[in-house]
Amino acid sequence: MAPATPGGGRRPARRHAVPSGGAAGITVRGDLGSTSTFRPDVLLSLSGRAPSARTLLPVDAKYKRCDRYGLGAGDVHQLLTYDAGYTPSADARAVIVHPCSGGHSHRTLQASGPRGALGSIHVLGVDTHASPQQAAVWVRSPLPWADW
Q: Where is this region: Disordered (predicted)?
């Protein structure tokens, strides 16, 4: 829970964007002909339950209508790569943000394999008719921040 403010209310949990480039990028080397680096569009650093604990949350923006056409296998693979590279394996999570008309939407994809859970991907559709301020408030609201 967030600490109390002098007026008795709660301060929001500390979260901020961190660089995902350079040594923080996920690098693939081998027979690809060149080195490949994966970087999320935004990498958030979230405060954990303990003051010294921080969790990274990769966020990727898609500019296609995921509400109409769904996510492709490549999108899921990309976010699972971010899950594996940036988040704790016991609680791997990532976020996709995409345009959506007719209201905001939120769904969660759960990926698993023969050895158990691989991670979850929160898919947030941002209403294209909302103002940027309304959209920003909404993007923060559906995610279970208290769990991170």
A: 1-26
Residue-wise pLDDT for 66-96, tens only, equals 777 778 888 888 888 888 888 877 778 899 9
Distance CA 67, CA 56 (A): 26
- Domain-located, residue 35: yes
pTM of the model: 0.75
> Is 4 part of a structural domain of the chain?
no
Q: Are 82 and 42 in contact (CB under 8 A)?
A: no
Sheet containing 116-127, strands listed edge to edge, beginning at the edge strand earlier in sequence: 15-18, 42-47, 54-61, 93-100, 116-127, 105-113
Task: Provide the number of structural domains found in the chain.
Answer: 1
Domain of 142?
15-147
Question: Which neighbouring-strand residues pair with 57?
Answer: 44
**8-state DSSP, 114:** T
Q: Say if CB 94 and CB 79 are below 8 A apart.
A: yes
- Cα–Cα distance for residue pair 48/15, rounded to 1 Å: 10
Q: Is 134 helix (H, G, I), strand (E, B) or coil?
A: helix
**Is residue 6 in some structural domain?**
no
Would 20 be classed as within a structural domain?
Answer: yes
